[in-house]
Hints:
Elements: H1 13-43, H2 49-52, H3 58-93, H4 98-113, H5 116-126, H6 131-157, H7 160-168, H8 173-203, H9 215-225, H10 232-263
Helix pairs in contact: 3-4, 3-6, 3-9, 4-6, 5-6, 6-8, 7-8, 8-10, 9-10
Amino acid sequence: MTDSTALYDIPGPHTRRRHLLYGVLSTVAILALAGWILYLLFDTDQFTATKWSPFEYVGIQELLLRGLGNTLKAFAYASVLSLAFGAVLAVGRLSERAVFRWVATLLVEFFRAMPVLVMIFFIFVALKVQPLPALVAGLTLYNGSVLAEVFRTGVNSVDRGQGEAAYALGMRKTQVMTYVLAPQALRAMLPAIISQLVVALKDTSLGFLITYEEFLHAGKLIASNLDYDLPFIPVVMVISPIYIGMCMLLSWFATWVARRERRSPKTQAVDVDPAEPGTLLPGGGPPTGP
């Protein structure tokens, strides 16, 4: 018999059969749901050639590619600026000076509480900023404030002894943060960072509300401006897998980075020779009492 773990008992034969039954029933239910959706799609003639013929035109393909490129451009700007803005706010929240902490905390709480769409509209309408900068600014303010909390929590999750040992070696706070705390916290923060970047990628679709010609905006033009019996469902079936694929690509990249980090020589265990008796002080033998 396999020993039980600290969290749960190893399932026995009856429990394993019950879990197998649950798995089979869940699979059947998912397949039934997928079959029902396919039946509805075929029943409403969503796979007819008339509704899919617009995608054969070069102009439509170029429109989708241009929208996809604009989406990736907005995401690239927003992700880089969000990481930088979040790092600045996290440093402020971790500062020893109360003024910096208060200002950073006020900014983080304000931008986290504000809806992204409200910030984008305010920047676009009230400040009269162009669509791309308005979209990037709104995404940066929101996602940067969320990432600031991720960074702060990740740094605080590192054992306090790590920082104390670095200070004991004479390192300054900047060196301790850069060379000791941040590299160790990165492993814990990476899943949350990637999740927030996925949110930023999906939120780029809000750009179509301020006439930014991103991917969803291109799909909306195709579905509403063509006389092909309004191919809304085919457009969704083309755009959705691409969004899902980009999000899965981000997750795969995070997994690759984490695996590479674990294989890095800087993070692997190093064999240390056992301690042997020897002189404890530079002056010679061990210290003696007065």
